[in-house]
Structures are given as structure tokens and as C-alpha cells.
Design brief:
Shape: elongated
Helix content: over 70%
Order of helices and strands: HHHHH
Number of helices: 5
Number of strands: 0
Radius of gyration: 26 Å
Length: 188
Amino acid sequence: MTMEAEQPTRRISPDTLAECEDSARFWGDELGPYGAQLQRRADYFAVASTMLSTLVGLSVWPLLTASTAWWAQAIVSLVALSAAFASAVPKYRNYAECASEIRILVREFQHEKGLFRDALRAIEEERTEKGQALAVTAHDLFEITHARKGELHPFPEELQERRGLERKAKAEVRAGLHPAAEHHPISP
């Protein structure tokens, strides 16, 4: 007779669920504008590169055939170099790729926020096993998404700092250190 060892069921506390839901809300709401900003930067450099390349293309042949002055050739070369630089910056800084990844992460954080809410609701309604199963799934997905967020380049350090301050303020409210803060929540 073989006895199979029962696997212990992972339990996620309601406090952890609420904290993860809050984090998913923050990143789901705040990463979108950051991604849009990166996309605007990538677009700006693409437009600048195109305009400079067009300028070089339109001016290089007439200038070279009409003038052999070194300064004219230097100006055309400088504009051509600027066009190359403008096209390289967004690729080097990873703006467009990061913006694309952010669009995916925002959808995932928003989905996970809903899963956390459903899990909390199920636990509150005494459907503990269903709630815990949902909580474990949501938590596992959240950890993966959160890790992918940490790999973003350029990383949203300003947002990370704001998230840290928001978490600290909420912890102080829960600890009763700032009771007035309950009436004036920190805006995201």
C-alpha cells in the first residue's frame, strides 16, 4: 500500500492579495503613459532622421556639383551625420521596443488586478478554496509580469520611486502613524 504524500496547498493571505492588487493597479495605470512617452520619443527621432536624410538627399548633389568649397561639403556631411545619429538614438535607447513591451505589460497588470479582486471577493464570500486557487494563479502570473517589468530598458525609475513612496505612505496609514492620510489618499 503506497501512501502518496499530500502536497501542501499554497495559501495567499488577503493582505498579500490586496497589496498585489494595488501594485497591479499602479503599474497598469502608470506604465501606459510612460510607454506612450517612449513611443513619442522614438517617433520624434524617426521624423527628425527622415527630415535630415531628406535634406541631405535634396542638397548633396546640387551642392557637390556647384561647389567644391570644403565648408559646403562639411555642412552636408554634418547633416548626414546628424541624420544617422537621429536614427540610431531610439534603437540604442530601446524606446520603441520598450513601449511595445509596456503595452503588453499594462494589459497583463490590468488582467491580474481583476483576478486579485475576484480572489478577494471569493474569499470574503466564504468560497475559500476557489478564492485561494484564483489567488495562487493571480499571484503566480503577477510575479512573472512584475519580473518582466523589472527587465524594461529604459527602466521607469521615477515610477518605481513613486510606487515606493505610495507603499510607504499606505503602510504608515495602516500602522496608524498618519490617520489623517486616510482622508487624503496619495494620488497615483
